[in-house]
Task: structure prediction
Amino acid sequence: MRTDVIVLGAGIIGVSIALHLQRRGRDVVLVDRRGAGEEASYGNAGLMERATIEPYAFPRDLGSLIKYGLNRSTEVRYDIGFLPRIAPWLARYWWHSAPSRHAEATRAMRPLIERCVEEHADLVAEAGVAPLMRKQGWIKAARNQATLDAEVAEAERFARDYGITYDLLDRAALREREPHLSDRLVGAIHLRDPNTSPDPGGLTKAYADLFVRKGGRFASGDARSLKAQGGNGAGAWRVATEDGDITADHAVVAMGAWSNDIYETLGYRMPLAAKRGYHLHYAAQGNAVLNHPVLDVDAGVVLAPMNRGVRMTTGIEFAPRDAPKSPIQIARCEPLAKEIFPLGQPLEPEPWMGLRPCFPDMRPVIGEAPRHPGLWFAFGHNHHGFSLGPITGRILAEMMTGETPAVETGWFRADRF
Result:
């Protein structure tokens, strides 16, 4: 099979790239060993996160370092045996989180984040799946006044510096907006700019279905079979699929936390880490309803209303990428979540686990491979892969077809490390 571009990975990043290349007249084959949107694009809080302009930095205050170091937090957990392997990466993350370097990461990421909602809305409209995008924002709730005051200060700064809009909710206003949250919460910030999805995996599948309806091809195969044929163009790249070998002039690696399985075999060394995370769906007790995704800031737990039930998501786990699941984070989060919302029985026999691909400088790699013409990279979006899939697809397609990208892309070069 011959095509113009092979896109490896059918998560939100790969599907968005395939759609935007297709819009520009390219023949594209999307390759994955699973269906579209069944890895990290499925397991998240469903946020199209327009409000969090500044990347998540490594904490630099002593109190946070002690809290996380004790390894009892719901926000961060580490496998003690994995710590020597991840320590150098964490040291680089800490270094990049210094104020001046964190400000640089913010400048790099801001144009992407500011476009994330409109780029999703464009694809949602074309796919005809308006119910899978809700224009309602999300809520950061606090259990004590000091936490709420800190969130208010940050919201005021974000409103001043980035134009973010929000509502400040005292306990009564929060109860009016979310009647079934408990009085353990003293108030909240309702961030109004983000959109949300009640089924992020389903939305990714809807984008993939749009790609196929418009003539794109989806092939089942192992992306690790990608081979350079030698020379430029004229089928420079080959990958094996169940439908036979596919050759193309261009190949895109958009495999999230598995991208290093490809680029390392080609001689690239990039510090990609996989932050593991878990979720579990629950029924609500009685007639309880959750209307918005809610972050319990003090507990480090997110509850998000999904079509499948109330999804409880955990924080970060540092452990080997392919290690078995651990029950620890779900066990820590569940009793805390039940303190603020009447969760009922789990709706699944076991939690889902996924991987967030992250670089220590808090920005992805998007662009052409430095030493392999026709090979392109798009991975490492930290906690914002679902948000940034469509805008990433647009700018990479613009780069690949010789257009001027919608944002400055020099920040995301693969040779910056």
Remarks:
- The chain has a mean pLDDT of 96.
